[in-house]
Amino acid sequence: MVGIKDVAEAAGVSTASVSRVLTNQPNVTPELREKVMAAVKQLNYRPNLVARSLRSQQSNTIGLIVSDIRNPFFTAISRAVEDTAYQQGFRVILCNTDEDAEKETLYLNLMRDENVAGIIFSPTRQTLANFSALDLNFPTVVVDRSIKNINVDSVLLDNVAAAYRLTNHLIENGYQRIGAIFGEASTTGAERRHGFLEALKDHNLTSLPGLLKTAPPKIENGYESALEMLKSGTPPEAIFTSNSMLGAGVLMAIREMKFNMPDDLALVTFDDTAWASLVQPAITVIAQPTDEIGKTATQLLLQRIAEPGRPTRKVILDGELIVRGSSAARSLALHIPVLKV
Amino acid sequence: MVGIKDVAEAAGVSTASVSRVLTNQPNVTPELREKVMAAVKQLNYRPNLVARSLRSQQSNTIGLIVSDIRNPFFTAISRAVEDTAYQQGFRVILCNTDEDAEKETLYLNLMRDENVAGIIFSPTRQTLANFSALDLNFPTVVVDRSIKNINVDSVLLDNVAAAYRLTNHLIENGYQRIGAIFGEASTTGAERRHGFLEALKDHNLTSLPGLLKTAPPKIENGYESALEMLKSGTPPEAIFTSNSMLGAGVLMAIREMKFNMPDDLALVTFDDTAWASLVQPAITVIAQPTDEIGKTATQLLLQRIAEPGRPTRKVILDGELIVRGSSAARSLALHIPVLKV
DNA sequence: AGGATTATTGTAAACGTATACAATGAGTCT
DNA sequence: AGACTCATTGTATACGTTTACAATAATCCT
Fold first, then answer.
1. How far is CA B98 from the centre of its chain?
2. Fewer beta carbons below 10 Å: N end or C end of chain A?
3. Are the beta carbons of B54 and A51 separated by less than 8 Å?
4. What domain range is B126 assigned to?
5. What does R_g of chain A's alpha carbons equal in angstroms?
């Protein structure tokens, strides 16, 4: 193993000088830099990041704590976070929590032990509730989940507005008996639910018993919930889901029950996943600007790392409504049954 | 910051003793352990992993280097790797290479600098070619890509056999003009191509000009390649793709050209993604045992970390052919055109 | 019983780097 | 010219652990 001492010796300078040129400090003469770099290249020296981190008491790895990497939303986020982080010389440690509060504290502790520079985190409601209690002693930015009355950087979607728009779109296209399934682990689900209900109210519609569900954001839950709705005597005309996992489950149920989209049942969901546009008819969605979210979160974090005292900020992004066939305007035949036959 | 010294003081013992109980060494009396643990709990002490890693010259983080986390195959792999790794007390650093050989060496160096315990890696062909040259000085296990004549643990699919089976299935169902698109970055694509061609040969079929393509595993490439095939005067009866990214692109092209599956065109692909079963007709695929692959790779790595001298082993898993509607037996009408009308 | 062996704990050095402080030398000013 | 400043480099300590080695106490054997 070649260390800084070897480089110093080879270059005929002190270890301090080597360290200084390698950390790009000012006040080093070009000659010094040259000598050192030559020795570095010759010996193929690479600084030991662990030692560097121990001594300088700071590291350039950041933690990314998400609930499920298989959820395409988080996949996209991680990708964006990693890209921007690596680009700035930071590494990323990825953790899956499965929306499990215990795992969350586990990983949070881990991050502390690893002495990470900061974390990007999408906490469960549970963890969010006593967020101030666990006082993270490192820079933190919250993504996707909203956090109130606490000073922490965050970047999230305008969930209420997006859900409102999506629901509104359904209603304007002639759907009235609208079922909905919301994720229950996060604040996100609750906010989208709020937007959904607002839209109903503004059109003098009410949510119907048995057609308003809440479940952990997993495919099977979407499937089960939708089956219940579809098998009931009075199935909905449309289903709204607050994320793609639930949406995929609903689609499975639709397939199983051999319902036709959108004539028998319309479907709209959050997150523009691969399958949403491949399926026929394609699914109407709210597309979240995942790249933007991940990138912004990382930038926010890096800025806070550089300047811990800066005022916190909340970045709120807008979702984009992408209208596709799954929510096409209800056909006349169905609207005015008298015309049938 | 509370350190080991504080704990030692509080417990009335030496720092060495504290360290010994915390690293679960034998030869400590129960009383000692008790005293130390009490102090640890009281002070809420947590060992600094960076310092530990520096001193002990080993860490418990492993690197996972994949080409694209958005590819569902790698998403599934990472999830499995992380789960098993964390379960054994190891952390995971995730890196995306975009199948870019430069990025690969970049991250490989990074892993070295970070002093990771080992890595799990799916190298490009390019990197694989001079694999021995970059002599990784840490335990490595290669996944998904095959590597010859070099002693390194690896776990991969029996690609030739799987591709053969998939092709064979098409042929048996009456498809003869079969187009194919293979990933070009990895050895995987080449192997699957081999299996594909073998199957053709065994049925006295030949690959047709313009119907055998190679491209980086991205959706747009699948799309472009398929469009070319479909727009040609003599489009294929079926298309075979060697991974889900290409497959998704092909499906987009099919949709755009308004071809019907499987009557106008059958489609089969590798990897059982979410959309493969949601689409109608659902897609026939070779499902890779991703959980198994990730888990096995991690275990292999941890074993090698524990015992560096052990003989290397190559684990070869079988893919599962899942037959769905996209490759249904060609209808009689098309088979025997004379019957038509 | 006394020496040899073993089990347990303590002392202090080491891991590889960054950095506070000291030291040196080159300008600058009066 | 001498005192003073400032830029540059060197010396040596600190980061928070683990661990080789020393030391002590306890046990065993003849």
1. 13
2. C
3. yes
4. 57-157+290-318
5. 26
B212 strand-pairing partners: B180
Best to test chain B binding among A91, A254, A267 (most B CBs inside 10 Å): A91
Which is nearest to B93 in space by CA: A223, A132, A110, A181? A110
- Name the nucleotide nearest A53; use CA and C1': C17
Residues A187, A289: contact at Cβ < 8 Å?
no
Task: Assign B307 to helix, strand or coil.
Answer: coil
Q: Between the CA of residue B256 and those of A46, A251, A327, B173, B260, what are the distances in Å? A: 52, 22, 20, 25, 11
Helix, strand, coil: what percent of chain B each, to 5? 45, 15, 35
User: What pTM, to 2 d.p., does this model score?
Assistant: 0.90
Q: What integer is the mean pLDDT of A310-333? A: 90
**A13 and A119 assigned to the same domain:** no
Ramachandran quadrant class, B183 (left: phi over 0; alpha: psi -120 to 50; beta: rest): beta
Are A258 and A166 within one domain? yes
Which CATH number do you get for residue A243? 3.40.50.2300
B119 lies in the same domain as B84? yes
A137 touches strand D (CB under 7 A): no
DSSP summary character for residue B23? T
First CA to last CA distance, chain A:
85
Same-domain pairing of B269 and B299: no
Each residue of A19-42: pLDDT tens digit? 999 999 988 999 999 999 999 999
Number of neighbours of residue B180 by Cβ within 10 angstroms: 28
Which nucleotide's C1' sits nearest to the alpha carbon of B14?
Answer: C10
Same domain, B164 and B283: yes
Task: Show which positions of strand D are touched by protein (CB under 7 A).
Answer: 7-12, 14-20
Q: What is the mean pLDDT of chain A?
A: 92
